[in-house]
Design goal:
Blueprint lengths: L6 E3 L14 E5 H7 L7 E3 L2 E15 L2 E5 L3 E5 L4 E17 L28 E3 L2 H18 L6 H23 L6 H17 L6 H8 L3 H12 L3 H17 L6 H7 L5 H12 L3 H8 L1
Parallel strand pairs: 1-3
Antiparallel strand pairs: 2-7, 3-7, 4-5, 4-6, 4-7, 6-8
InterPro entries: AraC-bd, Homeodomain-like_sf, HTH-like, HTH_AraC, RmlC-like_jellyroll, Tscrpt_reg_AraC-type_HTH
Organism: Chitinophaga qingshengii
Keywords: DNA-binding, Transcription, Transcription regulation
Length: 292
Amino acid sequence: MSKAHIHTYDICSLGMGKPASEEMLVARFTDYLAAHPDIKFPHRHSFYHLAFFTGGKGSHTIDFERFPVERGQMYFMIPGQVHSWFFEGKVTGYVVNVSAGFFNAFLQDAAYVERFPFFSGVSAEGVVTLPEAASLAVAALFEEMLVEMDSTEAYSHDMLRLLMLEMFVKVSRVARKDDTRQEPPHNYVLLRNFRKLVEQHYMQLRLPKDYAALLYVTPNYLNAFCRHMLGKSAGEIIRDRVLLEAKRLLINVDISISTIAYQLSFADNSYFTKFFKKYEGVTPEEFRKNIS
């Protein structure tokens, strides 16, 4: 597979030699890598992707941000994120691929899973290092999931849903303990809603006032709120999302720079180039050359 293209995988295309499920896959990391050697190159998924490392070294890049691979780390990726990895020797652990709709038949609230902090779509927030006790508990849950994946017992999918939700709650509690701030719940709701709106409208809406109107707050309040929660203004968060999509598109050498500028709603190629260089320090052409 060429590194100059971002391949998008669905769950069925990453099966493990058994009848492929369109909803979920759980596997040991060593078996998964052996079955799919090409997935070390940059790619994206149409599903939620989780990786839990119990041993080994290397690096994992999510949306162009690099993280070290270490024992006890969990990586959570939402559909559409671009990632790749480089391992030094043998790596052990577990991997889960699960469709966005897997829990919909089980939960009344279709957006429930999105509320966990590691599914924000922000790379750094999707990386959680577990202490030893939590790491052992999560590994035990993965082992139970592997049993259920091969089970012919009734309600095996429901057991998988329960085990995965239990894992999400355990990991979320660890992540929340690491956050020393005690924010009121409505702050997290507003932040999640803002990020969701940015994800939906960043191609067309570039100004904080547009999102403030949709959220029924003032632009000044939205900027102050974002600085408090994330250390960035609302405008910076919108801009970062545009830059991220530009990088994702630039990996594919079959798409011209002018086409990317058009897709991202820039007036022309020159404006896009100036925007990209101002915030990334290189032109789109230079970025493409360096990443290939």
